[in-house]
Design a protein that fits this description.
2 domains; flat
Length: 251
C-alpha cells in the first residue's frame, strides 16, 4: 500500500469516527437533557409537596399574593385617577372659564384620547408628534424587586414545616402593598390631556405645560379623594367619581 493509499484510508477512518462521535454526542446530550428535565420536574414536585404539609398548596400561596396584588393595584388606580380627573376638571373650569357642560364634554373626551395606541409609550410618542409636548417626565421609576435574606429564610422554613395560614396572611399583605406601590403612568394621563387640549383648543407645548402645572398644584392642595372630588363638584360642576373607577386599557 502506497503512502497516498494509506493517507486516503486514514482520512476515511477519521471521517467515519467523526460522524460516529457527532451522532453519539447528540444522543448523549439529548439523553442528559431529558434526564435533567425529569430531575427538575421531580425536584419541583418535591418542593410543592414540602410546601403543602399543612394542606395549603404552593399554588394557593401564589394566588393569595396575586389576588391581593390586583386589589391593591385597583385601589391605587382608583385613588390616582380620582385626583387626576378631579384636578383636571377644576383646572379646565378655571382656565377656560368653562360651564359645567363644557367641562363635562372635555372630561368625556379624555378616555378616548388613547384609542389606537397599544401602550403608554405609544400614547406618549403620539402626544409628542401631535402636540410637540413630551409628558414622559411625569412617570415614576419602579424600584427593582430584591430577594432578601429574610425571604430566603421564609422559603426554607416553609419547605421544612409547610405553608401556614399566617404565611397566607403575610403574602396577602405583601401583595396588596406591592399592588399599591405599582407605578402609575401619569405620562399617559398628561398625554391624553395634551392631545385633547391641542385638538379642541389648539394649545401648544407652553400652554399645555401651564395647564398640567395647574393640575399638579390642585392635586397638592387636597389630601383625600372625598375632598378633591367634592371640590370638582362645587367648582367645576362635574362628578368625576365614576370616571375614576374606569381603568384605561391602553396605559
Amino acid at each position: 500500500m502506497t503512502e497516498a493509499e494509506k493517507r486516503e484510508l486514514a482520512l476515511q477512518f477519521m471521517a467515519q469516527e467523526q460522524a460516529r462521535l457527532a451522532s453519539s454526542t447528540f444522543r448523549d446530550h439529548r439523553t442528559a437533557f431529558e434526564a435533567e428535565t425529569h430531575q427538575r420536574i421531580a425536584t419541583r414536585q418535591q418542593y410543592y409537596n414540602d410546601f403543602a404539609q399543612n394542606g395549603i398548596t404552593f399554588q394557593e400561596f401564589q394566588q393569595a399574593y396575586n389576588s391581593a396584588y390586583e386589589q391593591g393595584r385597583s385601589d391605587m388606580l382608583a385613588y390616582r385617577f380620582s385626583f387626576f380627573y378631579a384636578a383636571t376638571a377644576i383646572a379646565y373650569s378655571e382656565i377656560f372659564a368653562a360651564t359645567p357642560e363644557e367641562t363635562a364634554s372635555f372630561m368625556k373626551a379624555l378616555p378616548h384620547a388613547p384609542e389606537g395606541c397599544e401602550n403608554h409609550a405609544e400614547l406618549v410618542q403620539r402626544c409628542v408628534e401631535e402636540t410637540g409636548f413630551d409628558p414622559s417626565f411625569a412617570d415614576e421609576k419602579k424600584a427593582e424587586a430584591r430577594v432578601t435574606r429574610r425571604d430566603r429564610a421564609a422559603v426554607d422554613r416553609m419547605r421544612k414545616t409547610g405553608i401556614t395560614e399566617r404565611d397566607l396572611d403575610t403574602e396577602r399583605e405583601e401583595g396588596y402593598r406591592d399592588g399599591r406601590n405599582e407605578p402609575f403612568f401619569l405620562s399617559s394621563c398628561y398625554a391624553a390631556v395634551a392631545i385633547v387640549l391641542h385638538n379642541q383648543h389648539g394649545c401648544g407645548p407652553e400652554e399645555i405645560e401651564s395647564f398640567l402645572y395647574r393640575i399638579a398644584e390642585i392635586t397638592d392642595e387636597e389630601i383625600s379623594v372625598e375632598d378633591i372630588v367634592e371640590r370638582a363638584r362645587q367648582e367645576a360642576g362635574v362628578d368625576v367619581s365614576e370616571m375614576a373607577t374606569i381603568t384605561p386599557e391602553k396605559t
